[in-house]
Amino acid sequence: MIRRKYMRTRQLKPGMKLDQTIVDRLGRSLVIRGAAIDEYIIESLISHGVMNVYIQDGEMEEEEVVISSAAQNQIDKLYTEDRSKVSLSKSVRERISHGIQSIYSDTNIENMASTTASITNDLMDAIDSNNAIAIDIGELKTSDEYTFKHSVDVATISMILAKQQGLSRKEIYEIGISGLLHDVGKTKVPLEILNKPSKLDDDEFEVMKQHSVFGYRMIKDKGEFSNDISLGVLQHHEKINGTGYPMGVKEKQISPYARIISVADIYDALITERPYKQAFSKRDAVEMIMSMTGELDINAMRSFLESMILYPVGSIVELSNGEKAKVVKNSPHYILRPTVVGVKSGKVYDLGEDLSCASVIIL
What we know:
Layout: E1 3-8, E2 17-18, E3 22-23, E4 29-31, H1 39-47, E5 52-57, H2 69-78, H3 90-105, H4 112-129, H5 146-164, H6 169-181, H7 191-194, H8 202-208, H9 211-222, H10 227-234, H11 256-270, H12 282-290, H13 298-307, E6 316-318, E7 324-329, E8 339-342, E9 348-350
Antiparallel strand pairs: 1-5, 2-5, 3-4, 6-7, 7-8, 8-9
Helix pairs in contact: 3-4, 3-5, 4-5, 4-6, 5-6, 5-11, 5-13, 6-10, 9-10, 10-11, 11-12
């Protein structure tokens, strides 16, 4: 059972979970509720003068899943490892977290280009190390602060999509740079708008929509980034049908980088909880992406659907028929419908190919 406990920050231990969102004096989120604490977070809280916090005390009671012998036989027979995924070591995550924080905390730093390049090189190495062609967004966890984590998530997803499309190493690298910086213009948006805990009114939204223009100007002024990178930042909210912003351009007028970043940006924003909205489930977020065929580039959408892993092999899921099942195989063509085995019945549900399973979905 989970209880709320009030503790001195200096008494916190790595692994504890916060039961509140911590904000700084400017109203910016430092650490979100539910985040697992590490030494870096403890030191950051103390440095910001946060001397006491609420933590989650106790553990969630998890129902034990017993797998029958019949089910285990099927699992052993059908078990197929997921496609190689991007994986970041603890030291790389820490290095990336420090780097992205330095960029977004002080956009006037002279070494923005070199810091961004360093982060992107780390991401390229992570992709190259196991020839990753897929991504499980839950495994990245580079930071508990939304802006920093979102920037790295978008960059990583975008780089994998670019790889799926067969783009060159230079293009994959540049789209990583553009993804990291796509929201840097938000540092110029007034804090009362940026951190508003409710829906923006029309005037506030007009100001918010300028963040892509602010970001474009910021990196163009530095003269260290290519035009393709700059356009990726400027146009990442444009839509194929011309309903996007800031210019309302459409189709071929939108840069290739922006088309990819747009899909990554929308997905990651949907699955993240913010003060003004609940997070969508990964399944719901994917279905929303799939419904946006008139707004998003079809090639970027296809690459996205072939890259994301929603239900990692080995995970336990609940089916709409009431049965619990273990995921044994994913297909890049059926992101929402892997092959699973009922943990009690041993029944195989090939949700992607078997028409007899058409009415069964993962809840």
